[in-house]
Specification:
12% of the residues are buried. The protein is built from three helices and no strands. It has a domain at 3-48. It has helices at residues 3-23, 29-40, 42-48. The structure holds zinc ion.
Length: 74
């Protein structure tokens, strides 16, 4: 998995988790499930959202260049 897929997966999990939490309005245990799903978006972000050159985490950097080594990541 590369950082682009990790970002997509992270965003997808965040959206799904949020939708499940909203569904908790009708069935309250879903709030907890949605919360867990939302938190799980941190896993791909933590494992794969890294610079392919220096391997450091990109964090909230959505740009084209690594903030650590300055190389292009896109
Ligand atoms: Zn780098």
């Amino acid at each position: 998995m590369n950082y682009k897929k990790a970002r997509d997966l992270r965003d997808l999990l965040m959206v799904i988790g949020f939708v499940i939490m909203l569904a908790g309005y009708f069935f309250s245990p879903l709030v907890i499930i949605g919360f867990v799903v939302t938190l799980s978006c941190l896993i791909p972000d933590f494992l794969y959202n890294k610079c392919p050159h220096c391997g450091k985490r990109l964090g909230r950097n959505e740009g084209k260049f690594c903030q650590h080594c300055g190389k292009e990541i896109g």
